[in-house]
Structures are given as C-alpha cells and as structure tokens.
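Homework-ish question, so no full write-ups if that breaks the rules, but can someone show me the predicted structure for this set?
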Amino acid sequence: MSFVRLFQTLLTGPRVTEPAALSPAATTDDVGAAGAELRAVLANLYDGRSLRIRAVDAGSTNAEELELLALGNAYYDFERFGLSFVASPRHADILMVTGPVVRNLEAALRTTYDAAPHPCLVVAVGDGACDGGIWRGSYAVVGAVDQVIPVHIRIPGDPPSPAEILQGLAAGLRRPR
Amino acid sequence: MNPALLTTVQVVVVVTFAPLATGVVRRVKAFLQGRHGPPVLLPYWTLLTLMRKEMVLSTSTSWVFRAAPYVVLATALLSAAVLPLVARGGIAAPLSHMVVVAGIWMLGAVFLVLAGLDSAGAFGGMGSSREMTISAFLEPALIVTLASFALASGSSTVDGMLAIGGRGLLSRPWVLPALASLGLIALGENARYPVDNPATHLELTMVHEAMVLEYSGPYLALMELASMVKLAVFALLLVNIVLPAGLLTTATGIVALAAAPLVTAVKLGAAMVLLALVESSMAKLRFYGLPEYFFGSLFLGLTSLALGLFAGWL
Amino acid sequence: MTAAGLASVGLVAAALFSAIAAIAGLAGRSRAARRLHHAAMIAGPVAGLGGSFVFLAWRVAPLSLGASPLLFHAPLVVDRLSAFFLLLLHAVSLMASWFGAKYTEDEQDTYPPRLVLPLTAVFVLSMQGVLLSSGVASFLLFWEAMSLSAFFLVMADGEEESRKAALLYLAIAQFGAGALIVGSGILGAGSLFATFDTLATSVGLLSPGASTLAAVLVVFAFASKAGLAPFHAWLPEAHPRAPSHVSALMSGAMLKVAIYGLLRFTSVCWPDLPAAWGTSLLALGLATAMVAVIYANIAREIKRILAWSSVENIGLVFTMFGFQLLLRREGWPVLADAAQAAMFMHLLAHALFKSGLFLGAGAVMHGAHTGKLEMLGGQANRMPRLSVAALGLCLAGAALPPFGSFVAEWMLLQAALTSLGTRNAHVVIASVAVLIGMAFVAGLAVFAMVRLFSFVFLAEPRSAQARAAVEPAGSLGRPIAGLAAAGLALGVLSPWMSPLFPVTFEVLGPRLSAGPPSSGPSGLWLAPALAAALAAALCLAWLIRRSPGSTLRTRRSHTWDCGQPIDATMEYTATGFSAPVRFFLRDIVRAEKHLVFRPVVPSNPWIRHGQMEFRKAGGILGRLYFPVAQLIEDVGGWLKQLQNGVIQFYIALILATLLLTLWVAL
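A: Not a homework solution, just the prediction itself:
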C-alpha cells in the first residue's frame, strides 16, 4: 500500500461498504460438562484476558478451517477480544480441534494435547468434532474429539459461522463484552 | 541527580513500557489493515498468563535450553541499562562503548541460537541458522555505522554519541546515511520486516519465532519480554538520536524525573507508529535476498564514515 | 631470595624437568617411568609459570641463565618479551600435560608411548629453548628440534593420512628453516654464530638490498611457521592428526613461538621497518583471517574447525602487528603501543582458549569415538561438566564479553577508532580496513564457534557411538575447566594484567582525540565493570523469573514434532547450518558442481540418470603448492641426468670442482 493510503487508513479508519453488525450475544450459562474446570482455569489465567489458540485439523472438510481463518479478517477481527492464533501448541492456551478425529491423526492429536502446557482448554469446533457429525460410527474415524482428549467447549455447526464460533467461545470463556 | 538513580529509573521505565510498545505497534498495524486490533495492554496480560502456565521441557534438550532465557533476557536488560534511552550519564553509561554494545547484543543472539538448536527439531535449526547468518553479516555494518557516529561526535560510547543528536545532525548532514543504516540494522536485529515476519505461522518464513517454538510458560515469557525490551531499546535509541529532548541527566531535577515516563511513552509511541507504517508498506525479503540488505546497510555506514573523514580533513 | 633468583630458579627448573621427562619417556614401556614422565611434565610448567610470573610482576631486569659450549657459548637470556611468551608456553603445557597424563594412558594403542612421551617432552623443551636463546645458532638448533619433534608427533598414530599431513608440514617447515638460516647468515655477515646483540650492529653494515632480502626471508620463515596465508595450508592438515594434547601445544604454543621469533628478529634487527611492511602484513593478515574463518564454517570435523580457527586468529595477530608497525612509523607511538598491547592480550587469550578447545575435542573424541560433526550431538546431556567448560571456551573463541579475547578485540578496535582522528591517509585507510575486516571476521567466528558447540553438544546424538558416550574422567575434564576459567579471569581481571605485558601502554579513553589519552573511566577498567553488570543483569532476569505468581511446574515431553514422530536423523546438520554462509560467500568458497546426465531411454530425454559431484576447486594447495612441488621435481629430474653411471664423467666433475675451488680461493 502506498504511504498516502496508509496514512488515510490510520487517520480516518478503514473504508467499509456496510457497518459491522457483530456483537456476540454471550451468555453466562455453563457450556459443556467441563464448566467448573473451565471457570477455575480462567480464574487462574486472569479471566482469560489473553488466550492463544492453536488450531488442530483432525480430519475436517476444511469448512471449519475457512471459518476459523475468517475469524482473523477485518470484519470479524477476533484479536480485539485478546485471542490470537499461535504457531506451536507449546505457546497455546486453547486447542481448537476441527473434524471427526480420523484414525491417522489420532496419535498426532494426543501428541498435540500432550505438547500443550496445562491448563489447556479444548474447543471442539463443528459437528464432526462435537459428536462425529455425518461420519459418526464410520470405520475411518474415531469419532468425537472427547473420545481422544477431554473437551471443555463444544461449538456445533456444519460449519459454524465465525459469529457463532465467537459466540460459543465468549459464552464459554468470559463475561459479556 | 545520582547516576545510579538515573540508570535504575531508566531500566524500570524501559522494561515497564516495552510490552506497551509492542502492543502499540500491533494495534497500529491492525488499524492500517482496517481492523480494530488487539488491546494495547494485551502483551502485559500475555506475559502474566504465561508466568502461570506450566513449562513443558523436551527430553531432547539440555541445560543450555534452560539457561538460555536468562542470558537472553539479561543481555536485553543490560543493553537497556547502558544505552542512553531515558537518561544520559547514568552509572552504567561508560559501558555503552560501541564494541561492548555490539558484543552484548551478539551474546544474546548466540544464546537464542543455541536454544533453537537444542530442541532437536528442524524448525529450530533453520531459525538458528538464519538468525546466526543475519547477526554475523550485520556485525560489520553495525561497527562501521557506530564508528561513523563516533567519528562525528568524538566519543566512542553511545552515551557520548548523543551529543550530536537533534540539531547536531543538521550541522553534520553526513551522519544521516549512518542513521538510515542504524535503522536497517534495527529492523534486522529485532526480527521485523523486511528481514523477518514476527507474526507468521509458516515455519519456513520464520527466523526469530522459529527459535522460540519449543519454549512455554515462564521461559517463553522471559524470551518474549527480552524481544520486547530489545525493540524498545532500539526504538528509543533511534528517536533519541533524532530528538534528544527530555533526556534526564545528572543536572535535571525532580520534575523532569516525574515527567520521564510520559516523555518515554510519547517517544515510544511515535517510533512504533513509524515502525508500523514502514512494516505495512513493504514485503518481507526472501532470506537468500538478504545479502543486498546487509551490503546496503554496510554501504550506507561506509558512506557516512568516508564523508565524515573528508569533512574532518577539510 | 630475590625476585631475580626466584625467576631464574623457576625457569631453569622448568627446562630441567622437561629434560627429565624426555629421558623418562624413553623408557616408556614401564609404568613407573611413564608416571615419572607425567610428574615431571606437570612439575616443570608449574615451576616455569612461577618463574616467569615473578619475572614479569616484579619487573626483574633481563637475566642470564647460564651458557654452555653445547649451545655455542650464547647464554640463555630472559627479558620481558621472552618471559611473557614463557608464561604463555608454561600455562598451555601445564594444562596439556595434565590432560595428556590420562589421555596417553588410555590411548596407548593409537599413540605408542615410547614415541609420543619423549617427543612431547623434547617439543616443550625445544620451545623453551627458542624463547631463551640469545644467539642465532642456538635459536636455530632449538627451532629445528621443535619442528622435527612436531613432525614425528603428527605422524604418531601411524596412519597414511597423518603421514601425508606430516610430510606437508615438514616440507613447509623446512622451507621456512632454510629461509631463516639464509636470512640469519646474511644478517650475521656470513656467520651463524652471532648473538642478537651483535646482530643489531651488523645489520647497520648491510646494503639496503641485502637488508630487505634478509627481512623478507626471516618474515617468510616465521609467517609460514605461524600459519599466515598463503603459507598456511599445512596447518589444517597437520594439527588435527596429532594427539589432542599435542595439537593443543602446537596451536596454543608453537604458533606463539613463531610470533615471538618474528617480534624478536624485527625488534633487534629492524626497529625501523618502513610503513609499507606494516600495510602489507596488515593486508595479508586480514586476508588470512577472512578466508580461514570461512573455511572454519564449512569444515565438518572438530579439530579441523579448530585448526582453521587458529589460522584465523594468527591472521588477526598479523593484522594487529602490521597496524602497530604502521602507526609507529607514521608517528603515533601511543596508539601503536595500544595496538601492540591488544596483540599481546589476543595472543594470551588465544593460547588459553584454543588449547582448551583442542583438549576438549580430545575428551569428546575419547568419549564418543568420533570427531565428525555429522555423527555427534547430544553430549551436553551425557557430558554435562565438560559441556559447561566447552561452552565457556567456545564463547571465548567467539570473542564475546566478558572473556579475555573480547577485551583484546575491544582494545584493538578502540585503537583503530582513535586512529581515525589522525589526519594521515595511510593510517586512516588502514583503520577503516581494520574496522570492517575485524568486524566481518568476528561475526563469522561467532558463527563457527556456535556451530562447533551446537553440533557436538546440543540436541540428539546422530550416531550410536555418540549415544553411548560417557563423561570423560576428572583428570581429563579439569584441565579444560581450568583453561576456561583462565580465559574468563583474563577478561574479568584484565586491568590487573598489564604488569604481565612486555610493553607499557596507556589505556585509550572513549574520547577520540589522537592526542594524549583522556582521564576518566575508560578502556580496560570497564572489563570488570562489564562482568559485574552482566552478573547483575542475570540476577535481575532470575528475579523476574521468580516473580510472585509465577509457577515452577515443569513437565517432560518430547520435542514438538507436528504430530509425526521425529528422530535424530531429522534434526539440523552442521552442513545445513552453514548453508547460508556457503551460499552467500560462494565466490570465495568456490565449490564446483559437476552435473552429468545420461538418458536412460534414447527416445525420451527427460528420463535420465543424473550424477552430481560437489568439489572444492583448486585452493592454495592446488594453485601454489603443487606447481612449486612440480617445479622442484622437474629440476630434480633434470639433475638426475648427472647420475649417468659413467665413471669418467664423475672424475671429470671432481676435477671441475677442484679447479673452481682453487680459482675462488686464489
């Protein structure tokens, strides 16, 4: 971008075609059976003000991956909630697992969970990760993520839109913003 | 004012504001991309959160991996103490001799490289190989650039080099290429564009990030704090050369001392906005395209040195 | 007892103990004789260290230690220059002999004791003799003894490669010795029995041409023995093949003895060497250092890397020597003294860290049974104590604060910076060259040392023998730790080391005026302050780590591998690590790539068998040494025709020689 355009963006903000109508309607209901553990972990980690996410594709159709990628774009911009993606599970506080766990990736998923420092929250994104989706019972998949590693938050949808992912995370993680 | 007090105040102020500087540069870059961006105070929460998480240590690593974060942070803190960032003439100021400063930075880089290799992974090895190459090839440029500042100011300590800052630069315009070269070196040493991408997830494009991939918990916090402090150090140094106003000295009073954090914050903010603009306006160079960058920096420094020698002779 | 008495007792005892060790070593089959040898080899340097330290610290006047008809009636003399180098020699040989005691016992199959033990003692004794000689003849005698004992020691393991390396070393050493004999002959007006005092006067009687020729020959002799380019090719071949403690002695002490010879001859015979000598030695030194450090980054075996690093450091020493010569000729004695002090500090620091690194290489190779970087790794977990000392030595080798080698580089760069202010074109250009050249060499030297340490000690072992390695015995590890500590102490205590230097010098301040040095905290006094500041910063970092609220919980796991199991074959290798250097400097490294393609099927040119060969092109050995050797062989072949077996021809030759002698004599 030329310097002139950069300055314009800096001073007057981005040019948008329509204003963003996004405000995740978060609730304080406990989501998932691991609610108490979730609360304890977040209380220790400063109410989750800075949480870093590692995305693990355990055999999805990439639909959830596209939605996760959209989370970082200028429209949804999940960084303003203190979340960010990191490159290594060693740096991660949250593992976002997508897809029903295929047999070839079961060991890798366990390794990833083992590599992440505890406490690490696991979020199952998409129907496949939550309960196996349309592949439930297939010989090629293990099934829902909680059959391999413990899951704290489930975000159903095929795939869940970025707004739904954010709502699900916010509902599980923190006070309403 | 007591020189020991000056150095202490400087270290406290720089370390306190370094995460803020990183937050500001990320926020401004996000603005330039049309996003809202992360909160400016987020790096503080990140560091605090990391201190509470357990550390996972690889069985392939050795005591060097466990010792490296301390040395890397120590060299960053030492450079924050000796360089004229908030105060001039502190008790550690004689240690800001240009060779010593280059040696301290190189020591930190060496331990970072050792840590990257100790994890026995290919990512760390690649990052270490690239980082060591960048440090080794920027060394002549750094020495020549600081030598031309030394020649222009008549002092070989960086503390003394600030005597030609601000208006002194206008009367010695041949120092400006050296200033540009110092900017290029700063970008290279801090793993910013166009040498490295600090926000990438692709290991093949990483230099600094690849070496800390294996760290977690408090050690990762130490490494992140070290890189934040180093960025703040380079930023304040460059701003102080251009605009040495507001620096504490042994002659300034309590009012200036109380205003020092605000002045530092303003300087850091301006520098970070400039950095964000520079980073957003160019693409990262490929690693094998870096020799031109190194030679460009060396050439600018050498130009400044040669012109300074002529100016001194005439 | 006076200081002079103590000094002479110490130095004489050192020589005597070496002689005893040599004789004891000859009876190397008996365990008791070997023990006596080792005890004498350790006791001697202790006495020598004490003697030379007392000489330097108490500023004793030059001493004579006695004369002997065996040594051509020239007395053995100690002055400040020789005492400094004796201090260096005894420090290195103490640690090397301490290491060698256990090392030679364990490696008796590789290095036969009856050969190695007496030769090592003769080697040390002859180096002491060179440093103590006051006459040309005894100097040459000890010089040859030093070269020849080193020659046999390089061949000690009896392998073909070692023999070839030793012969290359011997050839260049004999060239140098020949040049030294001819040069000394010219200087002594035909006599080789002059003392250095008479040489000083007889040089004045020579014509300028003869004086220059003698200077060229003498400098060539010492430069080739020290390893200055282009006469360095023997060093990376010979130093790795010797037993490790002998390699330490060769790199740590013998190269310094060659520098001593250069300093002695130039200060005695040519105290007013023209500035052009300074500039050319400076340029040669920088070129040597740059080329050597690049090859140190590419070599794949521990001791070869260390040998190339020695060449690089000798290049830096010659740079400092040339620089101080230039400064002195152009009329800046204060700056010249400062540069010369930097050179002495560098010599001492290099002796300590290089011998420590060679001993460390011996210990690692002893434990892991390999010296190749591609087969090592993971030794920090298997040899933790050795790895701490080795890291200290590698950091010293990289000239990083707070070690002594950093202080030496600092002193020289400060001298170069201050020389920028002199309005003398030669000096300024030389200073700029020194600044850029030394910074470039320093950067790549850090690269080489980091590579050396990382691929020996860090990550996972790359071979079965590296995996099975164990920590070497204490008596192998303690000398290495001692040398690392000495290198650190040299840096931290450097302000108090100045009495030990042969020259007095003013510490240059931070103000860049080329006039009298400024007052105020400056130069050397900053070295202990820097060490203290580093220690304080480390404490602060530890406090930040232990800040309230932080956790101490750790968990062991395997390296993050993206979910697929990795093993030691997937980690970075030493060759890969230095790939950027090889690529960025490919015009200097000049590796030739030969690609040969053979089509497999004649109808389809894209299906083909490919073969790639990566060869190092030419090099000094190919372009300089082999043509010279070929020329000598050709001349010899032509002269062979004189041996035609016809007896009348031989009688005719005798008659011709007789007639020629009569004509010359009458």
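Now go work out the reasoning yourself. Hint: Residues 22-32 of chain A have pLDDT under 50 and may be disordered.
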